[in-house]
Design brief:
Oligomer: single chain
Number of domains: 1
Strand order of the largest sheet: 1-2-3-5-4
Shape: globular
Structural class: alpha+beta
CATH topology: HIT family, subunit A
Radius of gyration: 15 Å
Largest sheet: 5 strands, antiparallel
Number of helices: 3
CATH architecture: 2-Layer Sandwich
Strand content: 15-25%
Length: 145
C-alpha cells in the first residue's frame, strides 16, 4: 500500500487532540469505548524499525503520554496498548482505557462482546485530553534528558 491509498495519510483517523510535525494523537469515536485514542505517525511509514532511533523514542513518548493522560482523566481499570497495522499499514498505536464492566472486558475491544453495553462512560473533553497529553509528554521528555 502506498501513501495515496492509505486511509491514515488521507484522513486524520479521528478527532485530532494533539499534534506536532511528526505525530498526531486522535480521539476515536467509539460509543462502547469513549476513552480511546490513536497515536499516529504523520508520514506514511509501515514499521517501527523504519524510523530512526530518535523518532522511535519520540513516537513512543507520545504513546506513553496518551496512556498517562487517559489514566489521569478517566481512571480506568486497565489501559490496552496495541500496534497492529495489518489492515492499515501505517504506523499507529491504539491506546484504550478499559473498564471491568465494558462489553468486551477482559478481552480485546475487537473480540465478541461478553455483556451488553453499560451506561455511557465519561468522555474526556478534547481540551482536557490535549492538556493532559502535553503535560505527560513534558514529564516523559524531562525524565529522559
Amino acid at each position: 500500500m502506498n501513501a495515496a491509498d492509505c486511509e491514515l495519510c488521507r484522513e486524520p483517523g479521528g478527532e485530532v487532540v494533539w499534534q506536532d510535525g511528526l505525530v498526531r494523537v486522535v480521539r476515536v469515536s467509539d460509543a462502547l469505548h469513549p476513552a480511546y485514542c490513536r497515536v499516529i505517525w504523520q508520514r506514511h511509514v509501515r514499521e517501527m524499525s523504519d524510523l530512526p532511533a530518535a523518532e522511535r523514542r519520540h513516537f513512543m513518548a507520545l504513546v506513553f503520554a496518551a496512556e498517562v493522560a487517559l489514566r489521569r482523566l478517566v481512571r480506568p481499570d486497565k489501559i490496552n496498548l496495541a500496534s497492529l497495522g495489518n489492515m492499515t499499514p501505517h504506523l499507529h498505536w491504539h491506546v484504550v482505557a478499559r473498564f471491568a464492566d465494558d462489553p468486551h472486558f477482559p478481552d480485546a475491544i475487537w473480540a465478541a462482546a461478553r455483556r451488553p453495553p453499560r451506561h455511557a462512560a465519561a468522555v474526556p473533553a478534547r481540551e482536557d485530553l490535549a492538556c493532559a497529553i502535553a503535560e505527560a509528554l513534558a514529564e516523559e521528555q524531562g525524565g529522559n534528558g
